[in-house]
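Page 42, continued from yesterday. The earlier attempt failed because a stray header line got pasted into the input along with the sequence. Redoing it now with the clean sequence only.
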Amino acid sequence: MREIRIRELRADEARRKLEMELNDAFMAGETSAVVLHGIGSGRLKKLTEEVVQEMGFARILPALTLSANPGETRLELLPPDKKTLRMLKGKG
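This time it went through. Structure tokens are written below.
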């Protein structure tokens, strides 16, 4: 599981890092990620939700237990099949 830390970053820096890390995970064929955004004002959590929706290849997993950390968001990545992945990487 890829861990993406955006805690204490400004929104513009957090967005760039989140987009880059999610794209890298997607291209690597990874299937899950966790974004560590902290609790604070909730701005970085909202930003995470916006970026996930915009990118279109991930979905937010629901917090299933009371012990879930409110300062993190768990994601399921929906990577392409191997043929599409080769094409995206320019090898096919």
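Notes: Residues 15 and 47 are 7 Å apart (CA to CA).
Reminder to self: strip header lines before submitting.
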